[in-house]
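Mods, move this if it's the wrong board.
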Amino acid sequence: YWQNGAVTVSQDSPSDPVLLFTPSNVTDGVFNYQGSSAKTRHTVALVKWNDPEDFFRNKIEYVEDAAGIARYGIIQTEVTAIGCTSQGQANRVGRWLLLSEQSESEIVAFKTGIEAANCRPGQIIAISDPVRGGTRRGGRVIAATLSTITIDAPVTVTGSGHTISVLLPNGHVETKEIASITGVSITLVQDLSTIPAAGAVWILESPNLQS
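Not the wrong board. C-alpha cells:
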C-alpha cells in the first residue's frame, strides 16, 4: 500500500495483535458485523507471472477452487504476481487469494479514536465484544504493578488457562497467564515487562472464549 510517499510492504502471515479493541475504546461501544458479498468470493484466479524460459514474457497460471465453483459458480478474478518468475509460486498466489476470500467471509466495522492512528493495513487486531461473546471480557486498567492489574469492573471466570492481554506504554500488546482473580484485582503468573498505564485497554481470554 502507499504511505508517506512510498510503497510499503505488508506480509500476510501469522502474528500477534498490535491493538486491542473493546467497547471502552470504540465509539458508542458498537461493533457492526456483516458477511462479505458472494460476488467477492472468487472461485477462479488468473495469475500473471514472468516465465524466465520464454524471455520473461507474461504467462497466465489458472487456479480454481473446485468446492467454491460447486457452491458459487465461476467467479473469476485476475491478479499480477509482481516479480514472480516461478509457475509454482504463481499457483500459490492464486490459492492464497481464493482460500483467503472463502475463509475470511465476515467483516467488522467500528469507529475509534486517535489511538488507532498507527494501525496499518495487514496488521492483526484483537476484539472483545460482549454482545458477540455473551459476557464482558475487556475494558480499561485502573492501576497496575508488574505482577497485578486492577481493572475497571469485576469479571467472573471458572477453571484455569485464562490469560490477559494489555496494551503497554511502548505500544506493544503483552499477554500473560492469570494466577488468580479477586474482584477487580488480577494477579499474574509472570511479571509484565513494563507497568501498564492507567487507562490502558485490557482483554481477558479463556479456553472457551477467545478474542
